[in-house]
Amino acid sequence: MSPIPQPSPSHDLPKFHLQILDLSHPGTEKFFSHCGTPLKLLESSASAVLRWLYPLSARSFKTPTSATSLAEQETADNQVPEAHPPSIRSVTLHVRSVDGVAYTQSIPLDSEHREVHFSADYVHGIDSARIGNEIRGVIVHELVHVFQYDGKGTMPGGCIEGIADWVRTTAYFFLWLEKRFDNPWFVPQLNALMAEHEWDNGKWLRELLQGQDIEDLWAKYKRSLGDTDRQSDSTASKPVPTHGC
User: Which of 52-61, 109-118, 172-181 has the lowest average pLDDT?
Assistant: First the structure.
């Protein structure tokens, strides 16, 4: 992960609920055996997600631009709004038999109540050597989807998933962009912009990238990977995508 933002802001947490219908499912038994206290798992994971997505320093960081005057620089900086987490009143974790790994959804008619559905079948199949970390990793990934913005429903799924993976582990391309543009708050700033604006064919992403084309940057990123990096990347153990995007 990227360095933890300092100072760490304190965010209010929603109410957390747990619903399990089949206590005899072997995945349910493994979940309880390796998750610790479910409430502590959910609270600590949510706190981490909120620290990553909503650091105090994200808006004040001076994003490098081609501005030639202080006034122009301040105008460019002010394009990044001050972001606050969406209003979420409750999150219910369901551990049940379901295809895939996990998914997140709103309760019909009320987006302030969210549900995370975690596959007990998937939990049952996790290797015992990594089950604790994998359970927490999936929970963190799904909670990003609870608290992130999506450009009022217009943000591409790949970018939404990339932000979740940036919080959970390291979305390598996003990390590369942070370093290239000397902006450790690139992802929180993008999230903040998506709270206020629609995707608009990547307009606001290009603003953060100083007008550079994302496809060109992606090509440069791939060229920056040597053969050794590609080989090690292909053999490394990676988290399983939870949404198939």
Answer: 52-61
Q: What is the pTM of this model?
A: 0.81
- 186-196 and 38-53 helices cross at what angle (nearest 10)? 90
- Give pLDDT, residue 7: 46
For 50, counting Cβ atoms within 10 Å of its Cβ (0-12 exposed, 13-18 middle, 19+ buried), the class is buried
Q: Which of 2, 117, 115 is nearest to 55 (CA)?
A: 2
Count Cβ atoms below 10 Å from residue 39 Cβ, excluding itself: 12
Token look-up 């008619």 returns: 109
User: In the block, which residue shows the tokens 């979940």?
Assistant: 31
Q: Which band of pLDDT confidence, cut at 50, 70 and 90, is reported for residue 124?
A: very high
Nearest-angstrom CA–CA distance, 179 and 202: 20
Cβ–Cβ < 8 Å for 47, 140: no
DSSP assignment of 190-228: HHHHHHHS--GGGHHHHHHTTT--HHHHHHHHHHHS-HH
Sign of the four-CA dihedral 180, 138, 11, 36: negative
